[in-house]
Structure formats: C-alpha cells, structure tokens
Amino acid sequence: QVQLAESGGGLVQAGGSLRLSCAASGRTFSRYAMGWFRQVPGKEREFVATISSSGSRTYYADSVKGRFTISRDNAKNTVYLQMNSLKPEDMAVYYCAASLVSTIRTMKHEYDYWGQGTQVTVSS
Length: 124
What we know:
The protein has 124 residues and is mainly β.
C-alpha cells in the first residue's frame, strides 16, 4: 500500500509560479512511475506530467510543455511539479499518482494509488 500526500497548492497571479510536492509512504517509492493529473469541476481528470521510476524519462501534456517540470527525489520519497508561467486555465485540483510499473504512464487507469489533491488557483 502506498499513501500519497500533495502540498504546495495555493493562490497565485497569472504569470507566477508554484511548486507542488507529493510525499509517498513506503520503501518502494523508487520502483514506481509517478504522475500528476488535474481536474476542474464538471470535467474529466486530465494528465499533466509523468516521470519514470529512475527519473530518467519524463513526458508532458502539450498544454503544459515548456512551462511545467516534473522531478523526483527517491531518497526523500517525493515527486515535484514545478509550475511556471501559470495561466488561469491551469487552475484546478492537482493530484499525484503512483503506478506499479516503472515506465512513464499517461492514462488514469494505469495508476494504482492517488493522493487527495491540492488546489491551485490562478488569478487573472
């Protein structure tokens, strides 16, 4: 069992930056691919970014490519999402997720564990 806890959300002006963190429990964090998703009310949860278990591979949704960076520190059991040049359309609840496979994953059903989410609000 893996427990995930996101933090770092908040209110930011358009053009600003936030860094989300996701702390994972357990001793096998380094085996999991990790991902970030986001959801706004009335819409499906959508993929944002993913990173392989070793951190050597990453992949981003087109909407965030060049602005967001996913990274991980396996020694700290933590994955990060650095968000720069934020736009009002980035406003959502952001969720981190862990997959029991090691390679990058972009689909919700490929993830086995989810955090509770953290709200990101971007004012225009």
